[in-house]
Design a protein that fits this description.
By secondary structure, the chain is of the alpha+beta class. Helices cover 53% and strands 16% of the residues. The protein has helices at 2-30, 37-49, 55-65, 71-83, 125-137, 154-160; strands at 53-54, 87-91, 97-101, 109-113, 119-121, 147-151. The strands form 2 sheets. The protein has a 3-stranded antiparallel β-sheet. The chain has a 3-stranded mixed β-sheet with strand order 5-4-6, with no helix packed on it. Bound molecules: zinc ion (ZN).
Length: 161
């Protein structure tokens, strides 16, 4: 059972990655831009990460494997992903422009590290249902719902301790 669902999950991820790549290449063709090796590497890293990120973080991840990739290249690629509609740009009010895969789902509950800026998503459907029920009981119609917890991530905590 477990193995089967894992395999299925992998297939879904591969399919998603394929779709994102196709969409990006279609965009590049329309804009008469080239699908460079670097752009592909950055797209792979972004899709594989599968959580919200920002330029500096993605750059560090890429640099660890591909030392030839420059900061500006990552920046321009992320802007291209947003223009192509495969990434959504958003801000959490700390001065960093963050990117997540578009159509990633409507879960927007974040743990935000104030040290390194890493965003971890979490599922709070139980709390969410309660919040919606409470709002409804007050005659309120909710249009958007977001939970954002700020603090220090385990990695930063280990490094400083
Ligand atoms: Zn951190």
């Amino acid at each position: 059972m477990r193995e089967g669902s894992l395999l299925q999950n992998e297939a879904v991820v591969t399919h998603k990655k394929q779709k994102v790549k196709e969409q990006f290449h279609l965009f590049l063709t329309k804009k008469r831009l080239k699908a460079t090796l670097q752009r592909n590497l950055i797209l792979d890293a972004f899709v594989d990460l599968d959580r919200p990120t920002h330029m500096d973080e993605l750059y560090l991840i890429l640099r660890s494997k591909h030392s030839h990739i420059g900061h500006a290249t990552v920046y321009r690629a992320l802007r291209l992903f947003a223009a192509a509609g495969i990434a959504r740009e958003f801000s959490l009010g700390d001065g960093l422009t963050r990117y997540e895969l578009a159509g990633h789902g409507k879960r927007h509950d974040y743990l935000v590290c104030s040290d390194c800026g890493t965003v971890t998503e979490f599922d709070n459907s139980v709390i969410e249902q309660r919040q919606l029920a409470l709002a409804r009981s007050m005659g309120f119609t909710v249009e958007a719902l977001k939970i954002e917890l700020r603090g220090v991530c385990s990695r930063c905590l280990t490094q400083s301790g």
